[in-house]
Design brief:
The protein has 3 helices and 5 strands. By secondary structure, the chain is α+β, with helices and mostly antiparallel strands. It has 3 domains: about 35 residues; about 40 residues, no CATH class; about 55 residues, OB fold (Dihydrolipoamide Acetyltransferase, E2P), CATH 2.40.50. Strands 1, 2, 3, 4 and 5 form a 5-stranded antiparallel sheet that branches. The radius of gyration is 24 Å and the shape is elongated. The termini are far apart. It binds iron/sulfur cluster (SF4).
Length: about 140
C-alpha cells in the first residue's frame, strides 16, 4: 500500500507511541508485582539512596528522616547524600556588622555544625529550637 510521506510519518509516530505505551505498561506491571498485597506503609516501601538527592518530598519522608542522620556519620564513597541538615539550635544566633547571622546547630547525628552568613531574611531562631535546612 502506498502512503503519502505525511501519512507514513503519522503511521510511524503512532507505532512509536504504541511501543512506548506498551513498555511503560510493562514497567508499571513489574513495579506493581513487587508491592506486597494489600495496603502498605510508604515508609516501608521507600529505600534511601542516591535518588534521594533529587527527591522533592525527602523533607516529608519518614524513612529518609530516620536513616539520614545515621548515614551522615559514615564517610561515603559510593554516593553523596543530599546536603541536608536538621537538629536543634545549640547557641543563640549572632548577627555580624552586615546583618548576616551565624549559629551552631547540634544535628540529629550529634555533631556540632556551624552555619555562617545566613541572609537577613532568615527567621528569628532561638537556642534549643528545632531547625531543618537543605542545599
Ligand atoms: S527521600 Fe524520596 S527517594 Fe528517598 S527514600 Fe524517601 S521517598 Fe524515596
Amino acid at each position: 500500500m502506498l502512503r503519502s510521506s505525511g501519512a507514513a510519518k503519522r503511521y510511524r509516530g503512532r507505532k512509536a507511541v504504541a511501543r512506548i505505551r506498551d513498555r511503560a505498561d510493562e514497567e508499571r506491571r513489574q513495579l506493581l508485582a513487587r508491592l506486597p498485597p494489600g495496603p502498605a506503609e510508604a515508609a516501608n516501601l521507600a529505600t534511601v539512596g542516591i535518588h534521594c538527592r533529587w527527591c522533592d518530598v525527602r523533607h516529608l519522608c519518614s524513612r529518609y528522616r530516620a536513616e539520614a542522620p545515621r548515614l551522615w556519620a559514615i564517610p561515603r564513597n559510593d554516593y553523596p547524600l543530599p546536603l541536608d541538615l536538621w537538629g536543634e539550635v545549640a547557641d543563640a544566633p549572632r548577627r555580624n556588622e552586615s546583618g548576616e547571622f551565624s549559629l551552631r546547630i547540634r544535628d540529629d547525628a550529634g555533631r556540632q555544625v556551624a552555619i555562617i552568613a545566613l541572609g537577613q531574611r532568615q527567621p528569628t531562631l532561638a537556642a534549643n529550637q528545632p531547625v531543618i535546612g537543605s542545599d
